C-alpha cells in the first residue's frame, strides 16, 4: 500500500511514529531513510518493527531490523520480532544459522 493510502488508515501509535511512514517513500525512490529513534514504550516499538518488516517480501535478521532504529537493543528487537511471530503476524525461520523474520505466506482463499 502506498504512503498516501496508508496514512489515513493508520493507528494512533503508527501516526505517533511518523518516521516509519517516511521510510516507505524513501524505499520507493531508493533514498536511504534516517535511523528512527527507538521508542521507550512497547506498543510503539511493536508498531515500528511491524511496519519495517511487513514492507516488501524480504526476510530480515535481528541485526537488519535493529540497525534501522537509533538506540534499539538487539535483545529487545528480538523479543518484539518473536512476539509478532507468536501472534502470527510474522513468520520466523532459520537460514544459514541466523534467525530471520518475514510476512508469512497467506493461504489462497
Structure description:
There is one protein chain. The protein has 109 residues and is of the alpha+beta class. It has one domain. The protein has 6 helices and 5 strands, in the order αααβαβαβαββ. It has helices at 3-6, 12-16, 18-28, 42-53, 62-66, 74-86, and strands spanning 36-37, 60-61, 69-70, 91-95, 98-102. The strands form 2 sheets. The chain has a 3-stranded antiparallel β-sheet with strand order 2-5-4. Helix 4 crosses helix 6.
Write the layout of secondary structure elements.
Elements: H1 3-6, H2 12-16, H3 18-28, E1 36-37, H4 42-53, E2 60-61, H5 62-66, E3 69-70, H6 74-86, E4 91-95, E5 98-102
Parallel strand pairs: 1-3
Antiparallel strand pairs: 2-5, 4-5
Task: Quickly list its features.
alpha+beta; three-stranded antiparallel beta sheet; two-stranded parallel sheet; 109 residues
Q: Please give the radius of gyration in angstroms.
A: 14 Å
Say how many strands there are: 5
Strand order of the largest sheet: 2-5-4
- What share of the residues does DSSP label as strand, in percent? 5-15%
Question: Mean pLDDT, rounded to whole units?
Answer: 79
Intertermini distance: 20 Å
Largest sheet: 3 strands, antiparallel
Helix content: 40-55%
Given the structure, what is the number of helices? 6
What is the number of independent domains? Answer: 1
Shape designation: globular
The SS-based structural class is: alpha+beta
| SSE ordering | HHHEHEHEHEE
Poorly predicted tracts of residues: none
Amino acid at each position: 500500500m502506498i504512503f498516501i493510502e496508508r496514512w489515513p488508515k493508520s493507528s494512533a501509535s503508527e501516526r505517533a511514529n511518523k518516521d516509519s511512514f517516511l521510510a516507505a517513500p524513501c524505499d520507493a525512490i531508493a533514498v536511504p531513510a534516517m535511523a528512527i529513534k527507538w521508542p521507550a514504550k512497547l506498543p510503539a516499538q511493536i508498531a515500528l518493527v511491524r511496519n519495517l518488516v511487513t514492507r516488501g517480501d524480504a526476510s530480515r535478521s535481528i541485526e537488519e531490523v535493529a540497525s534501522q532504529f537509533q538506540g534499539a537493543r538487539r535483545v529487545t528487537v528480538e523479543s518484539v520480532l518473536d512476539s509478532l511471530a507468536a501472534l502470527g503476524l510474522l513468520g520466523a525461520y532459520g537460514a544459514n544459522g541466523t534467525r530471520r523474520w518475514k510476512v508469512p505466506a497467506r493461504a489462497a482463499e
